[in-house]
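Re: the request from the purification team.
They wanted to know what the chain is likely to look like in 3D before they choose a buffer screen. I agreed to run a prediction and write the result into the notebook, where they can find it.
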Amino acid sequence: MLLDPLDAEQFFKLHRALMWFVNNNLNIIPNISTPEEFSSSPLEAILEVRDAFLEEMDLIESFVNDNPADLNEDEIEIVLSWHHAISGQFYIFRQLKNFMVFLSTNKPVRAYGVVAFTETFEEILGPSLPRLVDTVLLPFKGKIVYDGLLRGYNIHFGGGITRNLNDEYREAKERLGIVTSLPVSSFNQSQKKTSQKKKKATTAAKDVKPVLDEVISMTDEFCQEHLNEEYADLCRKLAEKVSRKRPSPLLRGRTKTWACGIIRTIGWVNFLDDRTTQPHMKLTAIDKALGVGESTGQGKSMEIRKMLKIHPFDMDWTLPSRMEDNLMGWMVEVNGI
């Protein structure tokens, strides 16, 4: 599904005018006197303005108050609604009849139904999905669009990552449904269904909660003492992922063995035992610190990796600071924003 051509034209007019105003206030691209001149600037420069705007959202009010583009009341309301923009990394995941599903990379994962402008996402990106992109989602006339700018990475997703994304997509739909307007309504019908499901939680799910809390407490303490917060975040995420298996594997075995296996797994993905990385640590030192036998710790890590099909360079379990080292593969600008 594409946006109505007249609506697409209106969106580009409004967004182009706002970005031109932002540029003039922040003095990023010199000697730009009209929105049309701004849209002819190099893509890298336009992205720099867009990124600066995300740090200076109060410029929306300044733009509306000055109204240099002579907007009418309806157009002003559209621009004001962009305070509800959602920016960051998304997986462009699946094409449905009325929109493309974008999955957030932050937790809890949300699924957004995003409408394209004058070209389908398949025409822009090709048929191979998922794709990881940086972009900004914006509300527009009861729908969600993106800001016409996509920054992507040349990363191939294997079957393991795709399966994990399928799991997260299902969980996102159960939790909140597919979000098709911004801001997200707290009274979303699917959210009410989720509340009803929670009342029917099984005894097994309740039993695993204290075990999960204990495992996370141990991984947090270890990471804070020996590693860093990035490791702690990924260890929490991995512990939660393991706990959701049914029956939960955490209900069998010692908690310190699970904590050791989880830390070992994240360390293995991120080459923790490579002396050129920071932080650096031998994986066997994790066993020793947690009082777990070396073969036991190694075996538990292998069990987790096999269970969740985790592999080296696995993007789901790569430290954010290492993710940023990936070379930018491509950037897309739609309709000369």
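For the purification team: The mean pLDDT is 89.
Please add any questions underneath this entry.
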